[in-house]
Design brief:
heterotetramer, A mainly alpha, B alpha/beta, C mainly alpha, D alpha/beta, A: mainly alpha, globular, B: Rossmann fold, 3 domains, six-stranded mixed β-sheet, binds adenosine-5'-triphosphate, binds magnesium ion, transmembrane transporter activity (chain C)
Amino acid sequence: MNILADILTSVGMWEAVLRIATPLILGTLGVLLCERVGVLNLGIEGIMTFGAMLGWLAVYNGADLWTGMIVAALGGAAFGLLHALLTVPLGLSQHVTGLGITLFASSFSYYVFRLAVPTASSPPTIEPFRPLEIPVLSDIPFLGPVIFNQTAPTYLALVLVVAIAWGLNRTPLGLAIRMAGENPHAVDAQGIDPIWLRIGTIMAGSALMGLAGAFLTLAAFNSFFPTMVQGRGWICVALVVFASWKPARALLGALLFAFFDAFQLRLQTVVEGVPYQLFLMLPYLLSIVALIVMARRARVPQALMRPYRRGER
Amino acid sequence: MTRVLDLSNITKRFGHVTANEDVSLHLEKGEIVALLGENGAGKTTLMSILFGHYTADEGEVRVNGTPLPPGKSRAAIRAGVGMVHQHFALAPNLTVLENVMTGTESLWSLRSNRSAGRAKLVALSEKFGLKVDPDARVSDLSVGECQRVEILKALYNDARILILDEPTAVLTAQEAESLFATLRQMTADGLSLIFISHKLHEVMSASDRVVVLRRGSVVAERATGETSKEELAELMVGRKVERPKRPPATPGKVLLEGLDLTLSGKGGASLHGVSFRLRAGETLGIIGVSGNGQTTLAGLVSGLYPPDAGTLLIDGRAVTTHDVPHAIAAGIGRIPEDRNAEGTIGDMTTWENTVLERIWSPEFSSRGMVRRAAARAATDQIIDRYDVRGASADGRIRLLSGGNMQKLILGRVLEAGPDILVAAQPSRGLDEGAIAGVHERLLEARGRGAGVLLISEDLDEVIGLSDRIRAIVNGRLSPAIPADRANAQLLGLMMAGDWSAAAEIEAETQMPEHKKAETEDAL
Amino acid sequence: MRFERRDHPSRVLTVLAPVGAIVAALLVSGLLIALAGANPIRAYGLILKGAFGSRLGLSEMLTRATPLILTGLAAAVAFRARLWNIGGEGQFYLGALGVTAFGMIPAVAAMPAGVVIPLSMAAGAVAGMILLLVPLGLRLKFGVDEVVTTLLLNFVAVLFVSLMIDGVMKDPLAFGWPQSVPVPDSAVLPKLMDRTRLHVGLLIAAAMAVVVWWLQSRTVFGIRARAAGLNPRAAAFAGVPLGTTLIAVACLSGGLAGLAGAIEVMGVKGYVTTDLSPNYGYSGIVIAMLANLNPIGVIGAALFSAIMFVGADSMSRALSIPSYIADVTVALSLLTMLVALFLAQYRIRR
Amino acid sequence: ATPLKVAGIHASPVENTWNSVLHAAMLAAHEDGSIEYTFSEGVSGTDYPRVMREYAEAGNALIVGESYAVEREARSVAGDYADTAFLMGSSGEAAGDNFGVFGTWNWEAAYLCGMLAGAMTETGTVGSVGAIPIPEVNMLINGFADGVKATNPDAKHLVSFIGTFFDPPKAREAGLAQIDSGADILFGERIGTADAAKERGIKAVGSMIDYTPRYPETVFANALWSFRPLLDAAVADAAAGTPTGKNYTPLSLMKDGGNDISYVEGAAPAEAVAKMEEVRAAIMAGEFEVPRNFDEPK
Ligand SMILES: Nc1ncnc2c1ncn2[C@@H]1O[C@H](COP(=O)(O)OP(=O)(O)OP(=O)(O)O)[C@@H](O)[C@H]1O
Ligand SMILES: Nc1ncnc2c1ncn2[C@@H]1O[C@H](COP(=O)(O)OP(=O)(O)OP(=O)(O)O)[C@@H](O)[C@H]1O
Ligand SMILES: [Mg+2]
Ligand SMILES: [Mg+2]
């Protein structure tokens, strides 16, 4: 018990939670935007990989870190555009296209990476984002180092949660996006083309996925290598349901997931005899439990996964 | 008079279907034009072109003399055209205010001005007597309220020309009346209206001018004062239509009996101790305001769910297994309330839709294998006998118009020769010609000795077809009155829950049900 | 511009579309090959040579197509009934684990191959079924969306496999590596060509495709499953028992994915590891779609995907370009094929 | 002589440390003209036997790779291609005339690193981050732990496994977790561990390759492993036509130059270094044997 208390009260643990959560927050916001406008985006796993690769490659070739982030976002948006073109005007099946994008974007990233960095004997590195100690605030006991001693993209992610929550709930554009996810006929009837609205929103959401990937190579670590996204994208897809499509809850979900991850890593060092696989399973199983609990309450965007073609019966 | 709207020479094709051909239509300021036509005549298409939802293949739309760019709803809205769609264009999980405000502000502004929006909405809703709660979630609203939201949406966009596509199809008589009162108030305010309806009495009472479409073309235009229901019906269908007359009934034995049926509705209205009897060769009409339990009652009798308490007897035997195959096997034919959502599966073929509910019968399958040839033959026969136009056994049923879909459903039900027919809203959304056809089939079934349970919101229909009429209110059934004693006022009272007059009539016209049962037993 | 569905897709287009898709995919991957400094034209030749040019290539291509046919069928069956089973990958692994666990039962060793092989396959199929019945149960009971739960269960399944092959099912003779004990020799599927990996699983997979086609197009179950998927409310009104129909669909779908895993173990690998599947489950979903959910079409789509992969993989070695080009080519051709099939069914109008 | 055609098949991307050691050795041999090297990376278990066959059919004289996860199939492939020599990382035995094996035995160097770490820890806690508890990883971590015990019998040793062979960010998180639990020196069996140490300003030990240039302030010692002696031996055998079906592992031993410690001068206390050098000399001379323990470390 004492050990558990030690883990739970250590600054390092909570700092790790926020750090592990960052790509999940960004990715979840990305999926959330896409789903809010009515399109499932299972391309996230591949788009994150591409963002991770492209952002890293830019920085490796001399760009500064923020340029790397922007390049990653643009790369994400480009794949978002591809997903959008296939699923919105063409109305192709969203799961299948998403999986196709994931297969394509990840293998494409590995290929391009290998062309750009042909024979590396250990992963070449860049100088990543350093934790930014925010003066004064980071001196607050416990909370200070946990929250105010993170890298800049983590702050960006937190700001984005607020911005997207505001954007969706308080701006005309957000209203239109939500309506397109509920009933595209309705936005169309109000004179807004749901096709363009969907395409734009998916691109924005995918840009966030690109950022989520870039966080892995530009802040969480300092190099790119194949398979590094390791299913984080799929977790984001689950977190959106967990969050009932609300940005603030997405933050909560990402933190919870990160908590389990950070906790199991620390528990492993002190508790013996429990297979590590059980710890690794925990977050997934808990997500499923959370889905069961949330299912009754969740307000699914009603047009999710329903393609909209004007004038089709 | 100033001309506010001009559609000239509109032609629109979908594949090889010509939905509109060389249609011209105009509208004066302050005028109400009714657009009339059979199912599939092209009314919605025409209005969709006007609203910029579809692009016409040929022709032009002018508002106040200025041509509208084709295919741009936004331009139509800016020009002051508002449309209330046949199928509501509302987002169920958003509030009324959100639904109304979407698209009305610059998309790039950083803040939506809700208080101004709310003020405008409240003002409009007060001015035109369209009461709705701005903060209610649309999914919690009734159809009538949704209708109001749709109209408010158009008004919020400062519409000067309002198009209403079958606004009353799902409204009750009272709601429809108050809607027309509102519409008249709008014309007084300088708005101009086009509405589509299949209900001729509405057309006669509410419009200034009538335009009749048939097979995509304008076949007639009349000032309302100079025409009659009969003439309009004939113009629409191209031949004389008359609703068939009900011959006197010769009721036989009790086929279907409900005893104290109780069912708590999950997500719908409940039934509380409902008892009724249906005899061979008679039609029992059940009227009521929607949301009072009609759907639940129809579903219960159709075998969709079992009662919580009470007994259903078919041919004197209590039903023990309440499911669809048993209901059908026991001789119940079912006409569903919503043919698109419940009656057919749009992406399946006509033959699959025809045989699905009886796929278990040896006629259509043996040892788990579908007898496809038999199923196709049966379908072809129905298409032929029931004149289902545009259908082929292997075509997707989605492509059929409402009336033809209903004919197919009637065919698949009646060909099985049911003893009991449960018909829920059998002519909802259908045109005069189609309605006459449906009524004829229902009377035919009754004539050959079937018992018909007719559940409908259309009073004319109920009076025209039923032998006895009961109202359903809050899940309870009123006393039964004979159809020849029925009139709009009495039925209105019954639907409102005032049953004293009905009880008197029941007592005076026939023995109460329980006494009658005793005499029967004695015989 | 908009798209309008053709009521009767033209036959010419239906044939031409896939050809166009392959050409488009090859053009783009040719660009990428050129980027690596190799000659694309030569690469195309090498792709064909890799998949068809030798006994080895041909047998490897067919070996790879085998599990893809089964996972493709698994997805096609489920998607027809609108059961969004994204969990083929996990079901594949559990099927593989199931067959191995069955082989560990002492009595099995004594049985003849003629008994062990069918029973083993059944064990794998049942394991796959169970994994899909869980999310289906959650959907029917609590209304939990199965897209996400089946997806998540993939990870749980792989971790579970890892747990088992690290624990009770670990092969004591595997030098401590996390791998399961091998299936008994009597459960090993006979080879179709010797000195290759091609085994009779291919024939079993093809037979399953025919069985599924028959079930879907000729039986009451097939028509009901489709009805339940397309419009549950109308299907219920027509008396289709929604719950049992979906359960049957889930058993079929999960069973096929499980069977894929079982056959891969019995025919190719002999034991289970956590890298048994190079995304067979996920690829199955795209393959099902390419086949327009038609079971016979799944065979063609799986062969296509296997040709692309084995051919491009071998080409990458011949040209010394990054071997990831194989996955790129496959993924690209899947995407272009989806678009082409769409365009064959729709016409573009102003 | 024409260079020998050698193909490398890497189950992981070549950035993975273990593979990178093989890759680097073969690249170097390619550069100096002794072999002609082609390779495939990220080859999954399913594809591995096919790639072996393809390279064999393409006329390669020697195929180098890892058969850990595909032991049975690899041997059956070798059986089918008797004219091709195979040199496979394996925990098993050699087979036939042409299936040679080798192990990664740098546990001696790990022991020496452990000796330094034991002397240097201030908190009395050190940590190791490993991939999966397989014998060769276990042996390494146990070697390190034994070294620590040799100089600091009371020291606590934390062990984490990340469950995969290549996930640097995860190894980093695991390292951070150990630091939070009090470790002040980390043994990074996996790449990524040293990043955690660097971030928190503590020291780390590298494994297999020299991590010091990558983390100059952080990694003060490395348990180096060299593949070149093994490769050269196998190439020589293959070229000469002598059977390669033998165990090349002994060439990994310290006394044969297969593994050794490298350390930053002045990082560890002089007497600790001296003590370590003493043991090192004893190993070289064959006077001291570092215990070899394949069991999962606790
Ligand atoms: N998108 C479409 N694709 C193919 N055919 C169409 C389409 N839209 C309409 N049609 C056909 O065009 C004709 C006119 O349809 P429209 O909906 O305008 O008529 P309607 O009078 O509103 O009929 P209903 O009352 O049945 O809705 C019908 O035959 C219909 O089947
Ligand atoms: N006990 C029940 N179990 C399952 N579904 C039910 C139950 N009761 C009602 N429903 C369903 O709920 C929906 C609404 O039924 P409801 O009884 O409110 O209809 P209604 O009163 O006739 O109103 P309306 O005329 O608007 O349909 C229908 O789809 C019906 O099938
Ligand atoms: Mg109509
Ligand atoms: Mg219409």
